[in-house]
Write a structure and sequence with these properties.
248 residues; 21% helix; four-stranded antiparallel β-sheet; six-stranded antiparallel β-sheet; 12 strands; 7 helices; alpha+beta
C-alpha cells in the first residue's frame, strides 16, 4: 500500500499500527485488540473476504450469525451493524462502510465446489495459482489457535452482495464489489479475526481469479455516545453495555 493511501481514505497516519496485503486465495489471522480497527479495502474490485470472529480470551464464544441478524432486523451487514457473539456480547462492529452490503447467508467455498466449477487443480501443476478454497483456508488458519471443524460457524463475506428473490433464489451481484470500497471492523472485545480471500461460493466468473485485499490496522478507540453502531438499533446500545461490563 502506498504511503498516501492511508491519508486518502481517512486513517490518521500516526495511528496506523501496521498495513499489509492479503493476496487472492490466501488466509490471514490476527488478534484485534479492543479499541483498534481493521480496515479492509477492496483495491482492485471484485474481492471477497470471508471472515470468522472469536473472543480470544474465551474461544468457545464466537460470532453468531442468527443472533446478529435477528437483533438488528437485517439479512446483511452494513455501516452501523454489530456482530454479536453467542453470549450476547459484541465482538466487532462496523462504524464505517463504503460498500453498503456484506453477505451473511451464503457460507464459503469448498474443494468440491471449486472442482465442479473450475475442474481439477494442483500445486504441482499450477504452483501459487492452484485453486484454494475457503473451507480449507479457514481450517488451516484456525488450527494455529487449536480450533478445528467443530469450531467452524457461518461466516461473513465482506464486499459480496447476495439477495433473495421472491421465489427464494439466492442471487449474487457481480457488479457490487468495486475498487476502493472499504469497511472498518472495530474490535469491541479482544477478538481473534480469521479471514481469507477465496472466491465467493456463488460468484459467477468463469475463471478462478480471487482478488486481493489491503488491510490497515489502526488505533481508533471505542464507540462514543453518538457512534453509528449505538444509533443503528436499540439492541446495539444494550449489546455495547453488556460488552463493557465484561471488562469491569
Amino acid at each position: 500500500m502506498s504511503e498516501n493511501l492511508t491519508s486518502n481514505i481517512g486513517v490518521p497516519k500516526e495511528k496506523v499500527l501496521f498495513r499489509e496485503t492479503v493476496q487472492g486465495g490466501a488466509n490471514w489471522s490476527h488478534v484485534l485488540k479492543r479499541g483498534t480497527t481493521l480496515r479492509i479495502i477492496d483495491t482492485e474490485g471484485g474481492t471477497n473476504v470471508s471472515a470468522l470472529f472469536y473472543n480470544f480470551e474465551l474461544l468457545s464464544e464466537r460470532y453468531n450469525m442468527a443472533d446478529t441478524l435477528k437483533a438488528q432486523h437485517i439479512s446483511h451487514l452494513k455501516e452501523g451493524c454489530a456482530l454479536y457473539s453467542d453470549m450476547g456480547r459484541i465482538l466487532v462492529s462496523l462504524p464505517r462502510d463504503t460498500s453498503g452490503w456484506h453477505d451473511t447467508i451464503s457460507g464459503h467455498s469448498t474443494a468440491e465446489h471449486l472442482l465442479r466449477r473450475f475442474g481439477q487443480s494442483s500445486f504441482q501443476e499450477q504452483r501459487n495459482r492452484f485453486q484454494r478454497n475457503a473451507r480449507d483456508n479457514f481450517l488451516m488458519e484456525m488450527g494455529k489457535y487449536d480450533l478445528g471443524l467443530r469450531d467452524l460457524v457461518p461466516n461473513v463475506n465482506f464486499f459480496s452482495k447476495v439477495s433473495v428473490t421472491d421465489t427464494g433464489e439466492l442471487r449474487f451481484d457481480a457488479s457490487h464489489a468495486r475498487a476502493g470500497a472499504f469497511v472498518d471492523v472495530r474490535a469491541e472485545m479482544n477478538t481473534l479475526v480469521i479471514l481469507n480471500t477465496c472466491v465467493h461460493p456463488l460468484a459467477t466468473g468463469r475463471d478462478y481469479d480471487p482478488k486481493p485485499a489491503e488491510l490497515v490496522v489502526w488505533s481508533s478507540g471505542g464507540p462514543g455516545p453518538d457512534d453509528p453502531v449505538r444509533k443503528f438499533r436499540p439492541e446495539n446500545e444494550r449489546g455495547l453495555l453488556l460488552t463493557e461490563r465484561y471488562f469491569l
